[in-house]
Write a structure and sequence with these properties.
The chain contains 8 helices and no strands. The chain is mainly alpha-helical.
């Protein structure tokens, strides 16, 4: 279990943690304060069954995991959850663009999704870095 929480000495990892964490935290909050366009309404438009549940479920995990990334606690677990969320978003919202409009529209419309997925994957592989609670709690005891 310790390998999930161990991380390296990198101080610069905080840049990726802040990028991914703040964007997911913001998007999660918006699912609740702008439900028609970002939350329940968007999930209904996309075609989710039980769209209210999935919008709130997703928003809650984006808020929790985004915050955890910002402080660098449970970084790999949070990054994995957010990677799954963004993979579903890519599949549900961007693949139809690829099919209907072609490669260039797909690449343009999915640029944030790719950045978030790569940032999440980086954190999943790397951990929180030195400026994070994972490092403080799990590396300082070795």
């Amino acid at each position: 279990m310790n390998t999930i929480f161990r991380t390296d000495n990198s101080k610069s990892t905080i840049i990726i943690r802040l990028m991914v964490g703040l964007i997911f935290l913001s998007e999660g909050v918006q699912k609740f304060i702008r439900p028609e366009s970002v939350g329940i309404g968007r999930f209904e438009k996309i075609g989710f069954d039980n769209f209210g549940f999935w919008a709130n479920f997703t928003g809650t995990f984006e808020i929790i995991c985004g915050f955890l990334l910002i402080i660098g606690l449970f970084t790999r677990i949070s990054a994995f959850i957010l990677f799954v969320i963004i993979a579903v978003a890519l599949f549900k919202t961007k693949i139809p663009i690829l099919v209907d409009k072609g490669l260039w529209d797909f690449l343009h419309d999915s640029r944030t999704d790719w950045a978030m997925s790569m940032g999440s994957l980086f954190l999943l592989l790397k951990g929180s870095g030195k400026i994070g609670l994972d490092y403080l709690f799990f590396n300082s005891r070795s």
